[in-house]
Amino acid sequence: MNASPTLRTTGIIVALAAEAHTLVSRNVTPERVIPLADGAALYLSGMGPAAARRAAQQLADAGVSALSVFGVAGALGEPLRNGALFCPERVLDEEGHAYPTDAEWQTRLQQQLSRTAFPVRMNGTLLTTSAPLLTAAAKLVAHQRHGALAVDMESAAVAAVARERGLPFMALRAIVDEAQDTIPPALNGSVDAWGRARPLRLMAALCAHPLMLGDLPRLYSRMQRATQALRAAAHATGPTLGWSR
After folding, report:
1. Is 141 a domain residue?
2. Coil, helix or strand for 98?
3. For position 205, which CATH number holds?
4. Global pTM?
5. Domain span at residue 130?
6. Residue 194 falls within a domain, yes or no?
């Protein structure tokens, strides 16, 4: 999509289709700049740092004046529970590169998010990894090594582009899986890059691992609460996620 002069505020990157649906009611085409109200834009990138970096570059090329990441994350530390909103002070990649979030933007978000019914955490570090952390043991190792409270797969890549382009950056995440939660690898492999179920793979995974069926209600409930928190955050902040010049 060509750059548009109407895209003058926030570029919002989401990895998953379910995250996009908390911002817009219609289906969102992946890997496209989607104009929103008030000059903001949405980009459904798919999971992972490489996809997030491409999204950030395209939004910057389209003329946005700030970059943000919006969606779910996994908790690494006990203070964050399912449904909590996390707006970190900085994001960190696995090589130790740290990127602060915009302080004025964060202050504005804190005021807006206080109107929601969900717990809000405004301090701490968000870690970005290249692969999901599916076990409590893996999360504990990451927490001890990096001192981060939560983990995702996109924020540091977007923050790096924001630094390169001289743009303010913010990450706003809702916690889906808690520090002690385990996500079955077979279930994780049953979704596509945008988090959409692959029915044949899911059926095969359930046949191969029938005990996994017992995990589905808990994981579904976790995701439902996290997306409710995202909808509340979107309602409180508006289409720009609280950014203004």
Report:
1. yes
2. strand
3. 3.40.50.1580
4. 0.90
5. 10-237
6. yes
Give whole-number Cα distances, 192 to 121, 207, 245, in Å: 30, 19, 36
Q: In this predicted structure, what is the pLDDT of residue 4?
A: 45
Residue 91: partners with Cβ closer than 8 Å, 6 or more residues away? 98, 99, 101, 125, 126, 127, 128, 155, 156, 159, 171
Higher pLDDT, 210 or 69: 69
**Alpha helix stretches (DSSP H) within the chain:** 17-20, 49-61, 103-113, 136-146, 155-165, 185-188, 199-208, 216-237
What is the domain count for the chain? 1
Q: What is the token pair recorded at 211?
A: 């005990």
Compute the C-alpha angle 154/170/149, nearest 5°. Answer: 65
**Both structure tokens of 199:** 């029915």
Does the residue 5 lie in any domain? no
Residue 208, Cβ density class (10 Å: 0-12 exposed, 13-18 middle, ≥19 buried): exposed
Provide the CB-side half-sphere exposure for 151 (13 A, CA): 28
Partners of 85 in beta bridges: 120, 174
In a domain, 190, yes or no: yes
